[in-house]
Structures are given as C-alpha cells and as structure tokens.
Amino acid sequence: MRVTFGLELDGGSYPEPLGKRTASAGETVAGRDRMLELLETRLALGGVRAAEPVRVLEYRARLAAALPSAARFYAASLVADPLGTARMLLDWRDRLIGGGWDGKAPGGTTGRLADLAAAERGGDGPPLSPGREDRLQAVLKTLEGFGPGIREVLLAEPLELLPPPWPRLLRALAAHGCRLVPPAAMCGAAGGDLRRLQEALGGAYPGVNGAAVSGEVSLLTASSDSEAAEGLAVWLEDDAEGTAVIAAPGDDTLDRALARRGLPVAGAVPYSPWRPALQVLPLAVALRWEPLDPNRLLEFLLLPVGPLPRNAASRLAEALARQPGIGGPEWNAALARIASEPASRDLDPSAPGAPRAAWGPRLGAARLQSLLEGWLGTDRFSPEDGIPREELTRLCNLAASWAAGTGSKEESLAAAAKQALELEKMLELTPESRVPQVLWESLLEQASRAGTRLPGRRAEARHVACVGHPGAVLGPVEKLVWWDFTGRPLAGVAWSPWSRQERAFLSGSGVELESALRESQRFSAACARAMTAPTRLLALVVPERRRGETVDPHPELARVAAALGGDLGRFKRDVRNLGRQAAASPPLPALEAGIVEPLSRRLLPPLARVWRLPPEALIAPREHESYSSLDRLLNHPYQWVLEHSARLSPGLLRPLPRVRQLLGSLAHRLLQDCLADEVLESANWSEQEVSAAIERRMPALLAQEGAPLLLPVRSPDRQRLSAAVARSVKTLTRLMRRGDWSLAPEIGNGGNRGSELKRAGTYAGGALHGNLDLLLCRTDGTRAVIDLKWGRRRPDDAQVPLQLLVYGRLVQGAGDRWPRVAHFFIEAGSLYPLDALTPDNDRALWTEADCERQWPEAERLWQWRREQLDRGEVEVTVEGTPAADALAPPPGARVPSGAPRFDDYRWLAGWVEAAGETEDEEP
Hints:
The protein is of the alpha/beta class. Helix content is 39%, strand content 11%. The protein contains 29 helices and 25 strands. The strands form seven sheets. Strands 18, 19, 20, 21, 22, 23 and 24 form a seven-stranded mixed β-sheet that branches. It has a six-stranded parallel β-sheet with strand order 11-6-12-13-5-16. A four-stranded parallel β-sheet has the order 2-1-3-4. A hairpin with a 4-residue loop joins β23 and β24 (830-832). α4 (82-98) packs parallel to α6 (132-143), α6 (132-143) packs parallel to α7 (166-175) and α12 (294-301) packs antiparallel against α13. It is elongated, with a radius of gyration of 37 Å. It starts with a strand and ends in a 48-residue tail after the last strand. Residues 205-212, 344-361, 580-592 and 914-923 have low confidence and may be disordered.
C-alpha cells in the first residue's frame, strides 16, 4: 500500500488523489487523523472514541481528585473556570504524551509536572479516555511487534520538521520495510519574476534586482475582503482553467462571491452550529433562566424545525408579539384556540416527512399543557445558582427523543440528537448538583462546536480547485491564487508553557516536545513550497480589511518582499481590474424562431397619489368598523384596502413590542386595577398604599404581559413605570373627587369596574364597536370617556380627535347626550383638556357641543371615501406622493390627517428611486 502523508491533508489536497485517473487501488492520501485511523485499522487497534468535550470533563474530575492531597498550581483557576482550565491542562498533558511522557515526575519534587503527574495517576478520578496522542503511543507500542503492511509513504513535509511523535512513528514503519520518500522538488516556472521568486525562496537566488515586471507575480489589493472576492470571482469566471486556490478553512467569502455569479462553489464552511434543529435544546434551556427572555421564547416558537406543533407555535408567537409574556390574556386565549382546533397536517410537530401528531381529532388542553410544560417549564432558576442537573438531563433526554423520534432523515436532526446525548453524558461527569449559566454555556459551546452540514454547501461539479492550507499543495499547478494572504495564520503558532528547567528534565527523560521554532519553520517551508508550485502565475490577494477590521500582514510577506527586491509596489494590482473590461456583451448565437422570446423590461410600479383599480376590482364595505379601522379608512385608505380587502397582515417575524409600547399597555392595566381597588379607595388613595399596591401587582403582570421589562437592563424602565402610574392614580383620583366622578358600574374585559368596556353602536356606514379605557359617571347622569395614553403628543385643538369622537359616539348611542371626552397622559400624569372633569359646564375645548357638531363631519368624510372606493379610487397618503394629486375633501368634512406615522405597508405603496428610509418614531 502507498500512502501520501502530510499533516494538512485531511481537508483535501491539490492535485486530488486520483488526479486524472478514474480509479486507484492501494493508494490513499492521509493527514494526521486519517493516517492514525489507517494504522489502527491495519494493526487491529480500535474501540469507541470519546468526544473531546467528554475527555475535558473526565480530566477536570481527575484534576479535582488530585486537589485534596496537596496544593496544586491550578487550584484557583479550576475554581474560577473549571472547563477552561481543564481544556488547557489537557492540551498540555496530550502534548507531553505525544512527546513520549510516561506520566511521571522527578521523585521528591513539586511543581507543575508533579501536579500533572498526580492527575495522571488518577486517584479517585474517573479513567481518562484516550486522545490522539494516546492512540499514537499505542500504535508505536504495537509496531514493536509487527508492521501494518504499508509499502511506501510519500511525505508532504520533511521528516525532521514533523511534530512528535510522527518522526518516531514513521521511522518505526521504515523498520518494517516501509520506504519513506521525501518531498519532491517542484518544477516551478520557466522564467520571469515568478522563477526568480521561487529560486530566492529556495535559497538559490538573492532576489529580483531589476525594475522590469514580467507579470507572473501579483499582489492583488482591495479595500475589503468582499470587494476582493467579487473581483476574483469575475476573473475566475473568465479564466479558471488550471487554477488552484488556497483559502483558510472557515472562510466562505470567495464561495459566496462565486455563487452570486452563478459559478460552481468549492463547498467552503460546509458545517454550522446554527442550524434550527441544533437550537432547540439551547433555547429550551435559555427559557429556564430567571427572568424569562421573551426574545428567546419567540425564537423557540418560530424555529422552522421545532418540537411544538407548527400551528400551535404560530398562534403562541402571535400572542407573544402582542403581549410578551406567559400566562397573560393573549397567551391564554391562544391556548384555548389551539386546544379546540381540529388536528391537521399543520399540527405536525417536526420537519417534513415526520409522522403526524397522534393526539386524536383535537390537540386537547391537557396534551397541550403537558407539551408546553415539558419544553417551556414552569420554574425559573437564577443564572448564578444554576439549574438542577436532573432538570438539564431531562431536557437533554427530551431533545434527543424528539430529534430521533421524528422519523425524518434530515441530517440536522441526527446532529441535534447527537448533541443532546453528548451533553447528557457531559452532565453525568459534572460534579455540580446545580449547573450555573456560565458552566452550561461552556458545556454547550464544546458540544455544539462541530455543527452540522449546511444545505447547499457541498462542492459543485467543476469548481475551482481549493485547499485549506499551503501544506496541501502537493504538485505543480499552472496558476495559484492565495486567497486572503494576511495575518490569519499567526493565530495558530504554538506557545510552550514549560520553563527551561522543566524542558531539561523532560528532555533528559526522553520526552521530545514540539517547539514554536519548529512549528514556525514547518509553516514557512509549507508556504515556500506552495509558492514554488505555480508554473505560470502566483496571485496573492491582500485586502486592507476583513469584515470591517484592519488586517495584519502575512508572516511570509517579508520573505516575498525580500525575494522581489524589497519594493512590492511594482507588483500590486487592483483586484477589480482583473476581470474583463466593461464592454458590450457578445451577441447571442442565432436561435430557431419560437424557442426564445425576448421579454420587455418591466419597471417596479412608481409611487402614485391615487390608485385607480379596474371596475371588476370590487372593494366591498365591511359589516362593522372600529376606531383603528375607521381611522385608516378616513385618513389612509390604502392601508384599509390592503389590510381588509387584500387581507394582508404582518407576518410572524414581527418584532416584540418596543419598550415604549410596553410601558403604555402595562400602565393601562396597572392604572385601571388601582382605580378599581376598593382597598385603596377605603385608604383614600394614600400615596404609600398606592405605591405598595403597584409593587405587588407588577411582578405577575410583567411575567404575563411585559417580560422584556424583567430583564436586568430594564430596571430603570420598571421604576419609570411604577412612578408614573402612582403619580397618575394620585392625579386622576383627585380630579374625580373634586368633580364627584366615579367609575361606571359595568364590569369590563379586565374584570374591573368602568374600564376596558366593550361597546357597540352605529354610524352612517353601519355597525361600530370599540373598547373604552375608562368610563366615568356622575349622579346627574353626565358621563366622561377618558382615553389613556402613555406619552403626550400635542393634539390639534381645533378638532376633537377621531378616537374620542368614536368612543363618544359609542357612549352617546342614538339620541342620548354626548359624554365628555379627554386624554389622560400617564407618563406626565396630566389630563387634556385640563377642565374635562370640572363640575361646571363652562368649557371651551372638546365639549359635548364640539362632539355633536364634528361627528357629522367625520361621517361626511366617510361618505366621500366610500364613493372613491366604489369608483375604484384609493388614495395613497405616504410621504413622497405628489401633493398636487391629493384629493380635496368636500366642504364641511373633517380634513384628513397627513402621512401615517407608522406604516406596515409602506413598501407596497410604490417604488421611489433612491428613496431614503426614515426611522419610525416611538409612539
């Protein structure tokens, strides 16, 4: 058997193992992992390999077991960061084992080697699963008896530059008759700058000393890596034949640029830990921390592949977007709807292809509650104190059962099951009875590092040859492009933790350690060898920034500069000038008539003030309207048409309510509860009693309807809310006592007197309905409608706001007296108009007479809009429409408001070239 061996060949090589052959027997290309597996197979050494995160936890236990007997150098670090410390010391230990360490320290001495030797002995700690270095030592020991039958090993790196124990292992193979073939010299370029560079890198030429540039060596510059990728993709589109690319693993910038141009990709970064199935368990655990983060809950509900039935998750996400919390009115209403709905294929709890939900004709309240309690839980835990290990184990087992039991062959589900089982195993090795958040995230990071394959990230046929390391270039190539020739490789340079005395002892004991110098020499040799491979062109891509950050120069750039005479400016080219010059595309070849038909260019519809629909596009009136829908119909009819006639609505990916919106809705509830509290009323609304009542109500209310405010960063907003409501209760109750007002006796939706009252009425177009924030009454029959708002905006004093007109109409009914109307601004604790609740009737603003006069004006405006819709005319009131095309209302009608402040349909109204997006202001 013949093996081509190089440390960096596990990720592919150039040329590929088969080259231009269709098959090959008895030959293989192997890196360090593949070579080890090959030797173990041929020497009958096997067994189940423990995952590296499991080994870290095993070693953590061994380190802890060695602590009680003596003071160890790592004691403080192990307490502060147990997993990080165990991971680092395990790496030290494995490097020692690879160098031939037998696990012993000098007799009678103390120090780091003695402490690691104590951990190696184990004591009461669990056994340590073998790592790569342990397995290599087992192979070396077995090779003392017989060989693996490998006839020849072709080396990609010089034997003397390989890290231990590879030189010993290869020499042991040679002792069994295996022929070791050193790396063959590259033929290099025939002449020019490239040939002179290659000779200089090989030590045979002092460098370029002339001013002439022959063009075989180029430093391709760009302002950013994305700009460099686009320019290089254009060049590869024209001239990719005979080209190989060196691109560091994990960098898919060039691949994405190739995909945008419709070119075959090399499959860079094929794995990711961020696939939806791999987020199920992390999000389920994230929901158990106190306080609940509703953003994580929304992410859990909106996972494309998740454990909850899709229809149920969608409804709960909609409820959460309205009231961010668990257990509030919207959440409970959604649960009730889900439990009563017939089962359908939308209730499938997993990915396509999974078995249908077998829960009978309906999901059922009990089954739904059990499902939610299993995944979302009912208890929350402090991040510092931690989650009980048994609870985390239960969630791991639940996630593994879900992923394995879906019946789907989706690769990400298999990876999710593996992730959960691996975490379950790691939890078994964790000594803590409660796992703090920082420890759990460390465990999760280790278990999720590998990820799973991304869809569509496989290498495509006829893609440009690509390798991840210069050491993977094994043979000559016509053109070599070194993508992102910057300082990225510096991060991998080894650092030795051992002192001179420790190294001397280890060397005297026969332990050979990898040195930073040898690793640097090996990397430098690999770079020089790669740059001697091209026969026609060497292109080094040197962007100024990578992902917005300035990059350091590549460690080999100085050698290249010295070999090229020190002046690299002569060899720099802008990567944007590589591709073909902008010119008219060549004409298409003549095609048979009828096969291809030219398409006329269609522009996006421009922004117009009025849409004129065809006669068949009937816009029918609705059976009933509310204030919000009537406001859209009168002032912004295009919104009304899109929402109610076209039935368009924001999707599930809408964000949670903004803080200001939450403050408004929560202030409504707290203020209404306090006003209806008989205990507070009997205490004469004592400021101390009101504040205490608010503090009692807030935790449960926030958990159910305002969870974002429970996050630590929102502490000032919670204080702001509490203070504003207390101030508003004091002000409003004082005004009510002065004017002899009381809450209306009717019980509203929230269970309180005089608030959240559902009322129905009529208007010129039909039925009208709405919910009143507050309805007050006096013994003389006078009523007052108070609309609660959080922040204050300057109202138009000339007109009663449409909202108050609608609410007043609902109270006035047919022929009754109009009520008084007013806004109460909770944050400011002020009523507007100020005299709305004064006992006398001598008021100047928004009086009952104003309402009675202005309501017919609103109905005339409705009639005008309705006539437009009947003709197929829809006015578009967004910014940017020609003001001259606006439709003027008829005499006597209310003047429509201007452009809407908030608009879900802004981008459906029409296209404006170079239109700048403006930020919506807070409500």
